[in-house]
Write a structure and sequence with these properties.
Layout: E1 8-13, H1 20-29, E2 33-37, H2 43-60, E3 65-69, E4 84-87, E5 92-96, E6 106-108, H3 112-117, E7 123-126, E8 131-139, E9 142-149, E10 151-154, E11 159-160, H4 173-184, E12 189-192, H5 198-208, E13 213-218, H6 221-225, H7 227-233, E14 236-240, H8 241-247, H9 253-267, E15 271-274, H10 289-300, E16 305-308, H11 310-313, H12 318-333, H13 338-344, H14 353-367, E17 372-376, H15 381-388, E18 395-399, H16 402-407, E19 414-418, H17 425-438, E20 447-453, E21 462-470, E22 476-477
Parallel strand pairs: 1-2, 1-16, 2-3, 3-12, 5-6, 12-13, 13-14, 14-15, 15-16, 17-18, 17-20, 18-19
Antiparallel strand pairs: 4-10, 5-9, 7-8, 7-11, 8-9, 20-21, 21-22
Helix pairs in contact: 1-2, 1-12, 5-7, 7-9, 10-12
């Protein structure tokens, strides 16, 4: 299957999309990577979904990525007598370590790390930000607050502390067990929730050890403040606008999204834009005009991937949601303004041979109007460098490593194919031209640009650029 767009689509699997036939429909509709949310999945469900995705992949003969999203720490209040209370604006409300049922004056908070981190003046947001409290005093095992914005607070509602840096890491015992199981199943990406500091990424990388790509979810203000440090350590990151919009003023999100996408481009790291992109399609077969505009902005900005959450996991129209996202992306990328907007966001290459070769390849391909750029990549780094340049020409990424091929399903503009490694330079040129021809990107007489690392198979050593003609037999000649 050849996609007619460069941005990739992530589809979350759930009750509406767990059977193999539906997964196949989503892949045919345009899904490139499937997300499995461990907040709602057991290890048995995880193994079942991975097996079904791999079966669909084999049937379609098209690589599909799998992203396992770790739950992260969930901070919740305890239970109330009567199951709920009504908090009035200006009232005094206390969170404490008393396990008895809560009242309109207090509630149990079973998280000692919150008592250590919160200081007077800090905000506490409850129930996805619907209720806002401000700490007025912090005592031993007790946080006294003033209710800034009240409402109904019921059992086990979530708590966010946007002004406080928690001492606990982003990974819980559940996450650790889920991560180990995901690695056993050879998933392609693991997403770490509620990242606050670079050390959170280091902790996961020690466990993963290159077996999967590590994706950092940026959903806390503390992560935004240390964004560049985090980006340097992760393999990709996600702009998780849902939780980020709870902990930060909503009006800051559009500008922050643009800044993060451009930062990702500068560092050459894939970036995913997520949450509420086609939210109305959970219950409607068509999106709102505002949602279409939201998706188009992410595509215009050059995001590597755009994601569906509940739309494909539990919505009534999962296939239609993927089809809609695909159609919007194709339309944007054929818009007359798209090339200029993408090019305006380009950055100077790093002072390395690999980055210089990738930048030169884009320029040569556009100057000579080549049919395609073909990159040989073992680890995936050569292909990611090529994608960072956002060329007009399609990019074909060839690798003998199926895990690299699947992982690259997340990256902008890459058409990934697994093929055996060539033993010689001429064999590599022939194979590259043959693949460009076979995959429908080039015809006899067209020229393609070929990049690779020499000696062949050297990870991360992109140092060669070759121009070749596609001959009548599909092979190449310099």
């Amino acid at each position: 299957m050849r996609r007619h767009r460069r941005v990739k689509i992530l589809a979350t699997l759930g009750p509406a999309s767990r059977d193999e036939k539906m997964i196949a429909k989503l892949a045919k509709a345009g899904a490139d990577v499937f997300r499995i949310n461990m907040s709602h999945s057991s290890h048995d469900v995880l193994a079942d979904l991975v097996s079904k995705i791999r079966a669909v992949e084999a049937d379609l003969n098209h690589p599909l990525g799998i992203l396992v999203d770790l739950q992260g720490p969930k901070i919740r209040v305890g239970k109330f007598a009567g199951d709920a209370v009504e908090l009035e604006d200006g009232a005094r409300f206390t969170l404490d370590n008393d396990e008895t049922e809560g009242t309109v004056d207090r509630v149990y908070l079973p998280h000692p790390e919150i008592f250590e981190a919160v200081e007077p003046g800090h905000r506490l947001l409850l129930d996805d930000g619907r209720i806002e409290l401000k700490a007025t005093a912090v005592e031993d095992g007790k946080i006294v607050t003033e209710v800034l914005h009240g409402g109904t607070l019921s059992n086990r509602k979530g708590v966010s502390v946007p002004d406080s840096l928690l001492s606990v890491g982003a990974m819980t015992d559940k996450d650790h067990a889920d991560l180990l199981r995901a690695l056993e199943l050879n998933v392609d990406w693991v997403a770490l929730s509620f990242v606050q500091r670079p050390e959170d990424i280091i902790e996961v990388r020690k466990i993963v050890q290159g077996q999967a790509g590590v994706l950092a979810k940026i959903e806390k203000p503390q992560a935004v403040q240390r964004l560049e440090e985090i980006i340097k350590l992760c393999d990709a990151f996600m702009i998780a606008r849902g939780d980020l919009g709870v902990e930060m003023p909503l009006e800051k999100l559009p500008g922050l999204q643009k800044r993060m996408i451009r930062t990702a481009r500068r560092f050459g790291k894939p970036v995913v834009v997520a949450t509420q992109m086609l939210e109305s399609m959970i219950s409607s077969p068509v999106p709102t005009r505002a949602e279409v505009s939201d998706v188009s902005i992410a595509v215009f900005e050059g995001a590597d991937a755009i994601m569906l959450s509940a739309e494909s996991a539990s919505g009534e129209f999962p296939v239609e949601a993927v089809e809609t996202m695909n159609k919007v992306a194709v339309e944007v990328e054929t818009d007359v303004n798209y090339p200029a907007i993408i090019r305006a966001q380009s950055h100077q290459p790093e002072a390395t041979a690999a980055d210089a070769i990738s930048a030169a390849t884009r320029q040569v391909a556009e100057t000579l109007d080549l049919a395609a750029i073909v990159t040989y990549t073992s680890s995936g780094s050569t292909a990611i460098r090529a994608a960072r340049e956002r060329p007009y020409q399609p990019i074909i990424a060839l690798s003998p490593n199926i895990r690299a091929v699947r992982r690259l399903s997340l990256v902008w503009g890459l058409h990934t194919v697994q093929m055996e490694e060539s033993n010689s330079l001429e064999g590599m040129v022939d194979a590259a031209c043959a693949m460009a021809y076979a995959e429908g990107f080039a015809r006899p007489g067209d020229r393609v640009a070929i990049t690779a690392g020499v000696p062949l198979g050297t990870p991360g050593a992109t140092n060669m650029l070759r121009i070749a003609f596609v001959a009548q037999d599909g092979k190449g000649s310099s």
